[in-house]
Amino acid sequence: MKKVFTLVLILVCFRVFAQDSLKSFDYSRNQITTTGMEVLGSWAITNIGVGAAGWANSAGGSNKYFYQMDVLWNTVNLGAAIMGFIGAQKNKKMQLSPAESLRAQQKIEQTFLINGGLDFVYIGAGFYLHHRGNTVNSDELRGYGSSIILQGAFLLLFDGTMYSAQRHNGSKLRRFLEKNPVVFDGRRVGVIYKM
Fold it and tell me: What does R_g of the chain's alpha carbons equal in angstroms?
């Protein structure tokens, strides 16, 4: 009886430690995402405001199209920021198992890594449009190209920073799970192992 009591006590104590520690990693992931979406949303709102004013007051030329693209591009950025913010807020309320937490962490890291790759595509497309605008003497292409270069460069910096922050949190989570392979969710006891 004493051994059973000791085992139950150990499992309960471990559960409190593991769940609290796991919650801290989940909290960090959601906090990083929330802060990132606030930054992206602020960038988008600023660019929409400045772009709308510039577009309305532009006498024409490539500046008009630069501002126009800023407004259009950042409307999409604002939508993405709002969706990401809402998703992070919903995730804060969830209690994840270690496997679910690890999957969520891998997913967010992969998202920012893929977005970073796409940012290079945006920058390249912007340079192409700008060059093409110079070749065919098109203010529209030059303006759009310059705007896309700027927006792509910001997104590359943003996604790189977000990936780095999430990767750091994920590395700590993975080390924690490697050191604490036994889990207890209140109903089941399990062992995490690498495949």
Answer: 23
Yes or no: say if 149 and 126 are a contact pair by the CB < 8 Å rule. yes
Note if the pTM is more than 0.90: no
Q: Tell me the C-alpha distance between 11 and 162, whole Å.
A: 36
Where b means 16+ CB within 10 Å and e means fewer, 39-54 reads ebbebbeebbeebeeb
Q: Which of 24, 174, 13 is nearest to 99 (CA)?
A: 174
In order along its 195 residues, the chain shows pLDDT tens digits of 666 545 444 444 444 344 458 899 999 999 999 999 999 999 999 999 999 999 999 998 999 999 999 999 999 999 999 999 999 999 888 888 888 999 999 999 999 999 999 999 999 999 999 999 999 999 999 999 999 999 999 999 999 999 999 999 999 999 998 887 755 555 544 444 444
Q: Beta 189-191 vs 182-184: how paired, if at all?
A: antiparallel
Backbone φ, ψ for residue 55 (5° rounding) = -65, -45
